[in-house]
Amino acid sequence: MKKVAFVCVHNSCRSQIAEALAKKYGYGIIEAYSAGTELRNEINQDAVRLMKDMYAIDMEESQRPKLIDEIPKVDYIITMGCNVVCPTLPYEYESEDWGLEDPSGKQDEEFIKTIEEIDKKVKKLIENLK
Question: Which of the following is catalytic: 29, 54, 86, 89?
């Protein structure tokens, strides 16, 4: 299985959503992780609420904000679009930037648009990795 990390600055919103959806759709195909270059104390509560409403996924059950050095060696790193410059990692990996705006602090409509965009991108990624 390919290991994929979704990376954002605080690892509290977009990267957490991507990890949750990748685990949902990519079971048996990929191992999904998320991480940040800085940390928040908790996953964004609007993201938690909307993922429960939209997918019945409780991200707080199995996920938490973590730094990039807390995840294992991965094959792919996907940055969420927050101008993250990942630390130089001591191994080879492919990378891609999804260019997503951070919906934190915005209305639910913006969160839902971002979640739906992540959903499409995760499905495409998994299809490409099959």
Answer: 86
Which residue reads 């971002």 in tokens?
114
Is 8 assigned a catalytic role? yes
CA distance 84 to 17: 17
Is position 86 annotated as part of the catalytic site? yes
Distance in angstroms (rounded) separating the CA atoms of residues 70 and 91:
15
pLDDT 10s digits, 39-79: 889 999 999 999 999 999 999 999 999 998 899 999 999 98
**Token code pair at residue 59:** 């991200």
pTM: 0.93
Q: Domains in the chain, start-ordered, CATH in brackets? A: 2-129 (3.40.50.2300)
13 catalytic per annotation: no
